[in-house]
Specification:
binds zinc ion; mainly alpha; about 40% helix
Length: about 210
């Protein structure tokens, strides 16, 4: 009888211990907005910080819409002398917001799949950025984290965009051979255009450089 009681007591203790473990085990904490399980890289080392969306940091560096509007109200022509009227002002503000959002989304989406490299692209030439950025210049996610100001658009009417580079570092090194070069050489940031530099969106392609 005593043996049975001891066995029962041991069993009860074992059940209680396993219950405690089952209750203590929580769902993985590292999930993003969409509920997807975030890549391992988020959880380790510098990438847990690096892969925080640059949205807030960028907003802190960029003018708010009212400031842009107030500035544009005083601008009568762009850098090429193309007249800026009410419709052009509205278009420039909309373009600025849409492009900012598109580039932030590209980075946020890239973070979900662990993208490390991004490169600059010009769907249309930008006469202001042409002296600063070359199509195919690349930056690392860590550089974006440290310098959110390098996220385009860099000025009003800027056509520059950041595109995720889907591939490994070794693949990128191969691409370098065909013209992709680091944007921040030795971590030094080139002088970026002032946001106040205006290129009209309605300017003919030739005038846009
Ligand atoms: Zn530009």
């Amino acid at each position: 009888m005593t043996t049975v009681l001891i066995i029962l007591a041991v069993l009860i203790v074992l059940i209680l211990v396993s219950l405690k473990f089952a209750v203590g085990k929580k769902e993985p904490r590292y999930t993003d907005d969409s509920g997807e399980r975030a890549p391992i890289i988020h959880m380790s080392g510098i990438y847990s910080i690096v892969r925080k969306s640059p949205r807030e940091d960028l907003a802190a560096l960029r003018p708010v819409e009212a400031e842009i509007r107030a500035y544009l109200d005083r601008v009568t022509a762009d850098i090429n002398g193309v007249p800026i009227e009410a419709a052009a002002r509205t278009a420039l503000i909309k373009h600025w917001k849409v492009q900012t959002e598109a580039n932030l989304r590209e980075i946020e989406t890239g973070d979900r799949s662990g993208v490390v490299f991004y490169y600059y692209d010009f769907p249309a030439p930008c006469p202001v950025c042409s002296g600063v950025i070359t199509k195919g210049n690349f930056v690392t996610r860590e550089e974006i984290f440290k310098n959110p100001q390098i996220i385009p658009p860099l000025h009003l009417g800027c056509t520059c965009s950041l595109t995720a580079h889907q591939g490994s570092e070794s693949k990128l090194r191969e691409t370098v051979l065909v013209g992709m070069l680091p944007f921040l050489e030795g971590g030094v940031e080139p002088e970026l255009p002032e946001w106040t530099t205006v290129v009209s969106l309605s300017a003919p392609a030739k005038a846009r450089g």
